[in-house]
Fold:
Amino acid sequence: MIEISPDSDFSIHNIPFGIYSIDGGKKHVAIAYGDYILDCYILSKLGLFDSIDIDGEVFAKPFLNDFIGLGKSVTNRVRSDIQAFLLDDDNVIWEAQNQFLFHQNKVTLHLPIQIGDYTDFYSSESHARNVGTMFRDPSNPLLPNWKHLPVAYHGRASSIFVSGTNFRRPLGQIKDLDQEGPRFGPTRKLDFELEMAAVIGKKSEWQEPISVDDAMDYVFGYVLFNDWSARDIQQWETAPLGPFLGKNFFSSISPWVVTTEALAPFQIKSKVQDPPPLPYLQEKDGFQYDVDLTVHFRTKEGQSKLICQSNFSNLYWTVAQQIAHHTVNGCNLNVGDLLASGTISGDREGSFGSLLEITWSGNNPILFEDGNTRTFVEDGDSIMMSGYGEQAGKRIGFGNLVNTVLE
Structure:
């Protein structure tokens, strides 16, 4: 019924969930398939989910939280029923396709989840080593705790927006090396951070830690995540409590939540951790995801360049370990919470997930074909992130995450 490109991120094997509207109308839950979206609320009204014990009004919500909160026994049934429907050209529901089927370029995609809390981890060893080499001790770049626990900080959920949201350069205090005190002004070192974020799909109870072996039951799916950073503001304010205004001005996520079930074929065994972590962080079958990640930089002059090729698997700590550590002290998680991975950098040039690393703190500018250079993001520039896994003819992708700095 619907023809899609074989290299589409949104294949029959994917079926990610998001929120859409048309011409300012009501927001509904939808899925992506090829270049199209299917409205789950209308499909429920047409009877597609009659065999599932579900109130169709859950698809008329402005966020996915209520749907996700129904649990995987329900959400997986919805996803599998949609897959079966897409493969059944004879289903009578297709006669009403003008009611539920729309091209993606005709709709507006919205922030898919209502984010209650957001935690940003620091789980790529290569990234931590690069930062430690630049700013601490090249001979001993990792802090003493780094290989013993998943380092993280609590971020600001109110300033996380969906792809396509553009923003102004942030202001803050900056301490220049040649000045005795700080000055106030716009950041001159605006940076991106290539990350993935886990969407929590199950509530946990306060003072009841989540076992590392049960942790993945609490993850509904994943989105691309760009943790925009003002490096000069961040550097001055970080000691002693960590990032504040250098991070909380804006972060962005991709509009489609790709489920853990869709990503299951791309699980690969996690790396051996040395030294072994404490028992509460030791997994029986720890895994990462083999998902290729890319970053393209487009200048305000119109030049575009691939500046990063990394992989979701370039992490030392797994999502399960992050959740186990997050909750071991009794902290509770809620549906819609977002756990970001931290910058995902590989161990070679070309795989670094931030301009801080790519340009080595501004010392190695990026050269574009028109002769212009960049060390950090300038007004009018855009950053586009994408990610996909592919094997045995199956492709699962996240679409694009794009933001532009306003001039």
User: Anything to note?
Assistant: The radius of gyration is 22 Å. The first strand starts at residue 17 and ends at 21. The CA atoms of residues 165 and 403 lie 6 Å apart.
